[in-house]
Amino acid sequence: MALAYRLLHMLKPNQTEASTAELIAHWQEKPAPLLGLLHALHDRDGYLSDESLRAVSEGLPIPLADLYATVTFYHHFARTPPGQRAPRVCTGPICSQRGARDVLHALDDAREMPCAGRCDHPSPVLVGQQVFTAASDATLTPIPSPLPPINPSAYEECLFAHIRDAGRHTMAGYRASGGYRGLEKALQKTPGDLLALLEESRLAGRGGAGFPTGQKWRAVSEATGSPKFVVCNADEGEPGCFKDRALLDHDLHALIEGMILAAYATGATSGFIYLRYEYPETLDRLETALEEARSDGLLGRQIGGKDFHFDLCIRRGAGAYICGEEGSLLNSLEGKHPYPRNRPPFPVTHGFNDCPTAVNNVETLAAVGPIVARGAEWYRNLGLGENAGTKLISLSGDVRRPGNYEVPLGLPLQTLLNDWAGGPLPGRQIQAVTMAGLSGGFLAEKDLEVTLDDPSIRACGSFLGAGGIMVFDDRRDMVDVAAQAMHFFADESCGKCFPCRIGTQRLSERLSGTDGPSAWTDWQSEVEDIGSAMASTSACGLGVAAPHITQSLLKYFPSQIQRHLANQQDLP
Amino acid sequence: MIQKSTTLTIDGAEVAFTEGETLYEVAQRARRPIPTLCYDPRLEPFGSCRLCVVQVEGVRNPVASCTTPAAAGMVVHTSTEAIEHHRTTLLELVVSENRQVDVDPLRGYASQELTTLVDRYQARTGRFAGAQSGTSHSEDDNPFILRDYDLCISCNRCVRVCAEREGDYAIAAGGRGFQKQITTEFDSILKDSSCTFCGQCVQTCPTGALADKKALRAADIEEPIEKTRSVCPYCGVGCAVDLMTKGEQLVGIQPAMDGPANEGALCVKGQFAFDFVQHRDRLKQPLVRGVDGQLHETDWDTALDRAAEGFRQVADKHGRHAIYGVASGRTPSEADYCMQKFIRRGYGTHYIDNCSRA
Lengths: 572, 358
Prior knowledge:
The structure holds two protein chains of two kinds.
Chain A: H1 3-8, H2 20-27, H3 33-45, H4 50-59, H5 64-73, E1 88-90, H6 100-106, E2 111-113, E3 124-127, E4 130-134, E5 140-141, H7 171-176, H8 181-187, H9 191-201, H10 213-222, E6 229-234, H11 243-250, H12 252-266, E7 270-275, H13 280-295, E8 311-316, H14 326-333, E9 357-361, H15 362-374, H16 376-380, E10 390-397, E11 403-408, H17 413-420, E12 430-434, E13 442-444, H18 454-458, E14 468-473, H19 478-492, H20 498-512, H21 520-537, H22 541-545, H23 548-556, H24 558-570
Parallel strand pairs in A: 1-2, 6-7, 6-9, 7-8, 10-14
Antiparallel strand pairs in A: 1-3, 3-4, 4-5, 10-11, 12-13, 12-14
Chain B: E1 5-10, E2 13-18, H1 23-29, E3 53-56, E4 63-64, E5 75-77, H2 81-97, H3 113-120, E6 145-147, H4 157-166, E7 172-174, E8 181-183, H5 200-204, E9 210-212, H6 213-216, E10 225-231, E11 240-246, E12 249-255, H7 268-272, E13 287-289, E14 295-297, H8 300-318, E15 325-327, H9 333-347, E16 352-354
Parallel strand pairs in B: 1-5, 15-16
Antiparallel strand pairs in B: 1-2, 3-4, 3-5, 6-9, 7-8, 10-11, 11-12, 13-14
């Protein structure tokens, strides 16, 4: 049972013994200092003490009540020992089906954490600054972040074309397979040429919103405020999504190249990568890559010998799904309470510190280098039919070969499930899949015939989103799956707007059967009314999307719900 | 600078607006009643309750009117059937999380807002039963502010008024989701926080979760509450107040939201320090000290003679500047005037001050 403590010996030593005053002096000169400073103290002590918070409050400065409340918002900031040194076990939708709860009980002081982005190799356990993979007997092994499976098709890849090349994550490896050629090419031309090329390529936001990238960058470029910023949203928190992790771990110069190109196109002079907490090794790799880029003159002053200056830094999140929402992310970077922002104004004119800011997902940014290098038409033609380009799909759950796949937009879902990923496990049938991680709810029955593009999936009442697809075969109780999903949304709701704060709680209670009517018609009417109010009036995408879970459950699995309700009535 | 004015359509009527106005503000002017619980016109729009959503033609989802800037040519519908249905659902959800909807109006200026809306939308249906939110701080034994978070609906008005109007930043919203809870630094009691007990959080709370403890002492008095407009005497700002009485009893003070000097603000003294008015220790007869060293009741002539004699002796012995008058902030302005006249004219010194000058 002392496994957790034995683990401590395997961990990296604490990176700093610096005093609180030294850390504050170091960070208060930096942009977006709060998260960096809190992590430095948290890494040093394993938790955030009252003394540390008082010093931070005075040093930055930030009102103590605000600071305290904001620290309590992030689930990875501990306030007491063993805090950060205690194991945190992923109990996401896939891991909890692979024995994660047994692991949780077997490890001393272990706490749950929501999906940590290793659904292709469950179940991750975070101890200190390292990710381990837990076996069913709760032994922990540090296993590197899995690469995407070999391209199973004849379709050409854009993002994954070279990701499996040895050494691709280093500057030398990246350059060896054509890296930074897009940047060199772009710097020969004007920022206006780059914007036109992006618009022509029809690249759109791959974090889920699907906003045309060229149009976004043009808006930042034309905005009057300054300085301008580029922010990479690497807070991949959607359960069942782990595709950004693959790029960040194995092709990180592609991201950096994309960010430099974004800066060139928009006129930005600084950038941030907002990285989710659950990818600690990725942080080290990114820091190294940034250093490589700086020594090659790709970041800093006079990039490519031109009057073009740009540098970027990394800030880690601290465990909050909502920080993947761009307004929350910007508030989090600024050290404010991470509630979503009211829109308008939009980040393109009022982003980081109210300055024009391009906020883009990792996958979107990583596609820009290849697009510039090979042309807009090449990229557009990678899609099938009317669709332009490719999409990364994180496929997990009950299929033979889970993993990250790069699909041409418009590929039939069945092709991905059966031909690429080997289909269901022996003797099983696929009952349902999720879309957009959990945010798109379920697809089942004839809707499994969709093609992987938004028009097709939206016609079924769902959306492709960030591209997480979790597969549930005929063994799975879909009401239980839905209950866990809604529990996640309730836990991650920021609590700002009423429909989401109360609605996710009520839907969660109704799905788990802890509260609510047991008569089918009452249950249905309550769940539909809550879902409809949430979808129509919530302040951000979390509350708007969460009822996809209940709406799709009602659409495909009414009899499973009725069975659950009948069982509740049978209870004494 | 001339502000640009242009028009939009609200519920079929063309309404002019000024650039920078929100849809909610324009609708208010056009007398379209839009419900809200998180809105306070003195604060930055927040957009949490979502009751104020309106349908804008050409926009897929309803938008929160309090945070949406008016734009030329917008066609806005403030109460479609779908929107009214969502509003009812939202209010039913709020009732379901709350432990008590009807509260004593003595709790605070805005304390009836939830009750009023719940009744308007007939939202006491008992639907959406489940866990209730918020935990009261019964251990906070400060004499002024009741922290009855059992009734809190997380609208953040208290947090915003504390930061935006008072500048105290004493409270903040901790945690998240349904576990969100208004808190202070390290979840302490208010005395150990940077709270100055100005009471503004109490007066903006739409559910009475934050309540005026002093006013609530009069909860059992049967008579109705009467409000009388006055001006706080404590300092020179001139905050407008409404004195709340039940019969002959002064039971509480509320800031006047339309007071030109204070716009709903007060300080701890103006808000809570009124007990002296009808205090049993208050002097009703002049007292003079006898040879026994004790104070004894007497008549005004005797008392004034004794005081005059004392002052004259000091002035004769040490000169006119040995007299220094400090008037009380608890007296009416007329008495303050007499006091300075007495000191200036009577003794020929300008050594006159008032404790309200601070």
